Every structure is written in C-alpha cells, then in structure tokens.
Amino acid sequence: MRATALLLALWLIAPTARGAESRHCLWEVRGAHNTVYLLGSIHVLRATDYPLAAPLLAAYDRSQAIVMEIDLDDLDVGRLQADVLASALLRQGSSLPRVMGAQAYARARTDAGRLHVDLSTYDRYAPWFVAQAITELQLAQLGFQSQSGIETYFLARARADHKPVSGLETVADQLAVLARMPVELQTDYLLSSLADAAELPAQLDAMVGAWQHGDSRWFRAEIAHEFGSEPRLYDSLLAGRNRRWLPKIEALLHDTRDYLVIVGTGHLVGPRSVIDLLRRDGIDATQR
User: Treating both helix axes as pointing N-terminal to C-terminal, what angle do 127-141 and 171-179 enclose, rounded to 10 degrees?
Assistant: First the structure.
C-alpha cells in the first residue's frame, strides 16, 4: 500500500474541466421512507479545494443525521494519540531495523534521508506507523491537512446545526486492522511509500481532480493498481471493512430520517465496495 492507497482507505491524467453532465463521488440510495446519501471522502484536503460542489452541500442539508467511519464528535484527541502510539510501539527488545531486516531498513533509511527525515527517530515503532507518520509530514508540507478534510468540514457543520453524528466503527477497530497487517506487508508499505515520495504532489493533484469530477473509473483503476498484487491488503483495509459496515448502512434504509454517510472514496468504488455489496443485495445506488 503506497501513499496513494493510504488516502484511498483512507491517485494519471488530470480530468478535463467539469462539464454539464459531470457527476460527484456521491451516491443516493432510497429506502422505503427515507434517503441515504453515500459520500466518498478525501480525508485530507487543502483550504483552496473549497467551496464544495453544490450537490454535496445539498445532500448534507437534506440529511437529519451524519454517519462517518468513526464518530468524530465523540473523539478524545489526547486519548486517540495515546492509543495510536501504544498500538504502534514495538514490544520491548524489538526495533524497526530488526522487524524490517537490515537490507530493507538500509533502503528505507536512504529514501527517508532524501526527504530530510531521520528514520532512526522512529526505530521503536511498527512500519505501518512510520509510513503514515512520514506521509503525514509530506502532506502537511504540500498544504494537505485533516483540518481541511471532508469529515472535519461536515463535523463542524453538524455541530453548528445540532445534527447527530455516529460512526460505523471505532478507533480501536481501525488500529487493529493496521496492527494485524503482517510485518512483510507493513515493510512493503513503508518502502513503497518512501520510493514514491517524489510522485506524491502529482498523485495528490490527480486524486483531488478525480474526486471533484466524480471519476469513479479513475479510482477503480487506481485501486486495482495499488492492491492488485496484494489481495490480503485489499481485504484488510477496504473489502473486509465494507462487509462489516454493510448491515449498519442497510439498517439506515429502514429509518424515517435521511442520512449522509461519509467514508473514504476507496470504500465506494470497485469490487466488493459498499456500492457493489449493496447492489448484490438488490439495493440500487445512483451516482449523482
């Protein structure tokens, strides 16, 4: 999983200018007495990527409740940071060089040095955490921040409008997915993220452009490229979570309130996506 895949679970030709028939990463599902909107998110954006398109804002306005991957409205940031570090900390006597192996670690250290990062700073942490930490540094340098992400934007709107917010899973669930990744997959994730660092600015621009144009074909192709050789990783990070979310999303269709469900765009496109699983259950989802 490269940096691209990280933002899909959370990228190459830029789409053409938005046309009159353009769509969005927004799907509409009709229940017996309500509507559930499924919005594909980019978890980090730039302030310059706003304002959002009118159909996305309209879906929020029509919804009486918001559902996200995790309930950000009930999140203790201090506890979250502590939990992440505790989950990522290697057991006593272990280290990043030891779990990666000397050759892989030397390669990672060289590539990290090109980014002006001293890899030894992270020697007590698992490779998945190191990959995410370094990617977050790069994203911040490029102006991408979680504070400008889709979830943060709609969370602020929901708080101001007194709309309830809930989650499909917990932080512990997400950390368990990462911690359970085999060490060799974590090592590949770190190495490929570092190796692709030079391409990240162009990848991010392409991803945001595809998202703004609702180019689900682009996301499907990118997911196939990122995960095609690693079906276990695809199942862990996307497909497996989609299966666990599906009953909760389908249950919303039996309510009388309209909902806006916001999850990473990678969860809504391609095989075994939420949209695919809904359709397999005979539930139609229309992209808007």
Answer: 120
Q: How far apart are CA 193 and CA 200, in angstroms?
A: 9
Q: What is the DSSP letter of 228?
A: T
Beta partners for residue 166, in sequence order: 67
Parse the chain into domains and list their residue ranges: 3-16+23-287
14, 209 contact by CB (below 8 A): yes
Query: Contact, 36 vs 259, CB < 8 A?
Result: yes
Threshold 0.85, pTM exceeds:
yes
CA distances from residue 146 to 44, 56, 64, 143 in whole angstroms, order as listed: 4, 19, 24, 10
CA distance linking residue 134 with residue 207, whole number of Å: 19
Residue 127 has pLDDT above 70, yes or no: yes
Phi, psi (5° rounding) for residue 165?
-125, 135
